[in-house]
Specification:
Rossmann fold; 2 domains; alpha/beta; about 350 residues; single chain; 15 helices
Length: about 350
């Protein structure tokens, strides 16, 4: 039996996306034992995944503690992996892969890659499907270029029936009517430069309520509550009764349970969008002006999954442009991504979902 380690550190969206590698391996190397090395805080999105035999949890603090990190590397070496696939490709995963002493170590090509890996592949801007550049680049680690389109897999989150039932009980106890649309709002991105201006977000919320007469719950963490309240204050007073501020997941699995009962998710690009897609929940995503839409607009089809980006309105601005420069100008560029530009796309999306 082959023992294979897949490495994907850092963000929830990345960990969820790279889980397709575990699924691909299990389907094409059925006798393999697949381990998945991830940051501890991202575990909830891969719990119960039938294609992962063992999760190897990495605590980022270990990277700063040389003794603890060295102990972790020795633990990896003792596993005697046959193959290591590093989908992260940065310092900590370089060292994990190299320390494994696996006969086959695969990652992305960088100037220093040959010191750590036996095989490297090049990320490419070419996309063959609507799965998105980020997903297709993952597949390049395991399949040849001409086989990418036929090997597309969708990331999936596996909730238990009891988790869904607990979430349903919570919604009922909070006064949410199961016969009306329930909409999750990705009210904030993972950083200020990945979040719509407060006024624009409030306008989108008002428009969503006006069109759906639905019930809205927000996705946020406790440390963001003050900023969320600032946006809430900007919502039209007559529409605030549609917002259930007290209904939110206290943990990631609880959030996923609530999300699984939603009719759609609307909001800033980020991990919540990817989680919604992994639960087959329709999504409307607003991308930050400095994030590559082509990389992360997974499975955009113009109906169930719709995404807008400043480049959709000002394509000339993005010709031969540097996203690093745009990152520094994010506040200014967000002002150009106005409600009037976004609203027609949002209206069409909502109309399509309500009819389906």
């Amino acid at each position: 039996m082959k023992k294979i380690l897949v490495i994907q550190q850092k963000m929830i969206g990345d960990v969820l996306l790279s889980s397709i590698l575990c699924e691909w391996i299990k389907k094409h190397v059925p006798e393999s034992e697949v381990h998945y090395c991830i940051h501890a805080n991202t575990l909830p999105v891969v719990q119960n995944n039938p294609f992962i035999d063992q999760v190897v949890l990495f605590n980022p603090k270990k990277q700063k503690n040389k003794k603890a990190f060295w102990k972790f590397l020795k633990q990896i070496r003792r596993e005697h992996y046959d193959t290591v696939i590093d989908a992260y490709g940065k310092t900590e995963s370089n060292l994990i892969a190299w320390s494994s002493r696996a006969p086959k170590r695969i990652s992305y090509k960088k100037w220093y890659s040959r010191f750590f890996y036996t095989e490297t592949v090049t990320r490419k801007p070419i996309v063959y499907t609507n799965a998105g550049n980020a997903l297709e680049d993952r597949l390049r680690l395991v399949v040849p270029e001409d086989a990418i389109a036929e090997n597309i897999l969708k990331p999936k989150i596996y909730l238990t029936e009891s988790e869904r039932q607990e979430a349903k009980k919570r919604l009922v106890s909070d006064g949410i009517d199961g016969n009306k649309p329930l909409i999750m709002i990705g009210i904030l991105g993972s950083a200020q430069n990945k979040s719509l201006p407060h006024k624009t977000m409030a306008q989108l919320i008002d428009a969503t309520i006006a069109q759906t007469h639905g019930q809205l719950i927000f996705n946020f963490i406790p440390s963001q509550k003050e900023e969320v309240l600032q946006i809430y204050k900007l919502i039209d007073h007559s529409k605030k009764s549609h917002v259930f501020l007290g209904t939110y997941g206290k943990g990631l699995r609880e959030f996923l349970g609530l999300l699984s009962h939603c009719s759609m998710l609307i909001g800033n690009e980020g991990g919540a969008v990817n989680m919604a897609k992994a639960l087959n929940i329709p999504t409307f995503t607003v991308f930050s002006p400095w994030i590559h839409k082509k990389a992360w607009n997974l499975f955009e089809d113009g109906k169930h999954h719709v995404a807008v980006h400043l480049s959709d309105f000002e394509p000339e601005r993005y010709q031969n442009a540097s996203m690093k420069v745009f990152k520094k100008q994010s506040d200014t560029l967000y002002q150009k991504l106005t409600f009037n530009r976004i609203q027609p796309y949002l209206k069409k999306f909502i109309s399509g979902i309500l009819k389906s």
